[in-house]
Description:
Elements lengths: L1 H11 L8 E7 L14 E3 L6 E3 L2 E7 L1 H11 L4 E4 L14 E8 L2 E8 L6 H17 L5 H15 L10 H12 L4 H11 L9 H13 L16
Helix pairs in contact: 2-3, 5-7
The site of zinc ion (ZN) has 7 residues, from loops.
Amino acid sequence: MADEKDDRWKQLAKPFAKSEIELLPKYTGQKDSTGRIPRDKYRACKECGGYHPFPCVHLRYVGHAGITQRLNEVDPLWNWEPVATDQNGLPMMTNGGMWIRLTVLGVTRLGFGDAQGKQGPNAIKEIIGDAIRNAAMRFGVGTYLWGKSDKDKHMAEIGAPPDEPPFDLYRDALERAKHRGVSVSDAMEFVESIIPRPREEYEELEIKCAVMLVDSMQPPEQPDEPEEVETF
Ligand SMILES: [Zn+2]
C-alpha cells in the first residue's frame, strides 16, 4: 500500500495541462506622481484576453478551480481550516489575509492567503482560494509555475524583455551577450539607441533587428575592470 501512497504524492506535483494555467498580468511600467498607473497605459491584451496596463509580464498560475480539482483527485478527504477564529467562531484575519491549515493525505501544512487586491464579498473567496493555493504549493502543487513566475518577475525588475514569444528571441540574444561578457543593460541601451521605441512594443522585425544588434556586440576591452555581475 506504500506504493499507492507514493503515487498519490507524485500525482499532487504533476504538471498542469496548458488549459488549466491562467495568466496574471503584472504591470512593470512607471506610475504617476500619485502612485497610480496612468490611464493611457491600458489596452486590450491579445495574450491573456484581458484589458490591463502595459508594459507587463504575465505570471502563470493555476486558479482555485484547478487546485481544488487536483486535491479532490488525489485525496477526496482533503480539508482546510483557519488557524485562528474570532469570538464569533469566524476565521480570523491578520494583515488583510488568513492563515490556514491544509490537510492532504493525512499531512497538515500551513498556508497564507490574501485578497490579491480584490474587495467586498469577492475578497473573502479570494483569500480562501489564495490560502489553499499557497498551502497546496507546500505539497508540491504547481511549484514549477511559481519558480518560473518569480524569475519572470525578477527579469522584469531589471528591465529585460519577457521570456516568451515574440520577445524570447531577444532575451536569448541577451543571454548570449552576457556569456560573452557584454552587460545586459549596455546591450539593451545600444538596441534602444538604434530602435527608439519602448522594447515591449517591438514588432517581429524590430525583435530580429535587436537580436542582430546584440549578437554583433563585443565586450569592452578593459581586461583589468572587474566583470559586471548580473543575475539572470
Ligand atoms: Zn494580458
